[in-house]
Amino acid sequence: xxxxxxxxxxxxxxxxxxxxxxxxxxxxxxxxxxxxxxxxxxxxxxxxxxxxxxxxxxxxxxxxxxxxxxxxxxxxxxxxxxxxxxxxxxxxxxxxxxxxxxxxxxxxxxxxxxx
Length: 115
Fold this sequence. Notes:
Blueprint: H1 27-60, E1 61-64, H2 67-73, E2 92-95, H3 111-114
Antiparallel strand pairs: 1-2
């Protein structure tokens, strides 16, 4: 039973069998209303997703100030006057340390560790 058997799947052209009917025309207004409602729901979900993303950025990341930020604000002369100052610099974000407020464990072998 080592003979190869080839199985093929052919797609049937279903669009040729469908004929437009006059019954579908009044439904287009309802379909447009449903389509608009669906678009509004999708837009609302996008707005919520962006708000959640911005909230996460504010709570879990902190902005790192760089020398370029200081130069752009005018308090330093690292940037030449000929360079384009209109180009925005993307902020560098660093994750906040969630363990910074937890105390370190005692050293192994110390009296506090033994207690």
